[in-house]
Structures are given as C-alpha cells and as structure tokens.
C-alpha cells in the first residue's frame, strides 16, 4: 500500500487448497499480517487454508512468495523473545505453528488446549523451562506454555512444557510485563 494514499501497490490472491483435506477454498481470509525482523517481507496467515505466506516486497513489481503449510484456521500470534520465531495460533486445530522467520520455514506444530487465542501471546522466563511463550484458550480455562529456546534449553523447545489454570472458562488474550509477576 502507498503510505500516503493507502492505494494498493499489489494485490495477491489467497485462494488455494486447504492443508488438511486438500479442498479448494475460493475466498480464504487473511487473519494476520506481521512484518519480519529478518527479511523485507510480510508473514501472512491465511485463515481457512492453514497456509502461511512469506511475501517478500523487496521488488514490489515482482513479489516473491513462499508458502508454508501449517494448520487450518490460523489466527493471530506474536513473536518469541528473540523476534526470530513467529508463534501463531491455529485455533480450530488446537495447535500453535512456529514459523522460523530467519530460515523461512515451519519449525513445529505444537498441540495445545482448546481454541488457542493469544493475541500477541506473552513471553517470560520460566524458572525451570527458560524462555517461554504462552497463549490462553477460548475453549477452556487453560494457558499453554511453550518452550522457545532451542539453544540453551533444546529439550523444551517447541513443546508445551506446562499448562496453567486460567481464570474462568476461557480467555481472549494474554499479556505480561517484565516488571510484573502476573500473567
């Protein structure tokens, strides 16, 4: 988009086959657009197809698009603490897809509770598991905590390391702050 006029510079179709049943979807929605910290590209969640598109905008007239199969009904998500890995919820699949923005590939699909809905999620350092990222769920009262440090804590990386009891029957978003002991 042009920053001043908001006119589209390029339009990209999201039509395609779903990752699970290989059924054609004529009008899948875009659920999230995130700017990469590694490359001149956007990370685009295509909701119904379960595909993540890496749209390199370095040459706007000749876009380069890499498509990564993840899981159906991708929604929103956020970065791990290093800003390398994009953690995105596939809420109807009860999974979190981990996208490595540096290597430009799917790192893991993590099984979590019912209908994960993180907003951006929450990063913090767990005393046992090291750096983690957490998401609340709409479909149950749990909070899934996923290890995010493949270097110093490889045994916990890209796994749900614990599940916390949240308040009530489910939550829309989760946040934290470095100066807070609360989630």
Structure write-up:
The protein is mainly beta and 183 residues long. It has a single domain, classed as YVTN repeat-like/Quinoprotein amine dehydrogenase (Methylamine Dehydrogenase, Chain H), CATH 2.130.10.10. Helices cover 0% and strands 42% of the residues. It has no helices and 14 strands. It has strands at 16-17, 24-25, 30-35, 41-46, 51-56, 64-69, 74-79, 85-90, 95-100, 105-111, 122-126, 130-136, 142-147, 160-165. The strands form four sheets. Strands 3-4-5-6 form a four-stranded antiparallel β-sheet, with no helix packed on it. The chain is globular. It starts with 15 loop residues before the first strand and ends in an 18-residue tail after the last strand. The mean pLDDT is 94. This is Nitrite reductase. InterPro entries: Cyt_cd1_C_sf, Haem_d1_sf. Pfam families: Cytochrom_D1 (PF02239).
Short description:
InterPro entries: Cyt_cd1_C_sf, Haem_d1_sf. The chain is mainly β. It has no helices and 14 strands.
List its traits.
183 residues, mainly beta, 0% helix, globular, Cyt_cd1_C_sf, Nitrite reductase, Haem_d1_sf
Structural category: mainly beta
Q: How do the strands of the widest beta sheet line up side by side?
A: 3-4-5-6
Low-confidence stretches: none
Radius of gyration: 17 Å
Q: Tell me the name of the CATH class.
A: Mainly Beta
Give the overall silhouette. globular
Largest beta-sheet characterization: 4 strands, antiparallel
Please tell me the CATH architecture by its name: 7 Propeller
Q: Report the total helices.
A: 0
The amount of beta strand, in percent, is 35-45%
Could you name the CATH homologous superfamily? Answer: YVTN repeat-like/Quinoprotein amine dehydrogenase
Distance between the termini: 36 Å
Order of helices and strands: EEEEEEEEEEEEEE
The number of E-state strands comes to 14
Fraction in helix: under 10%
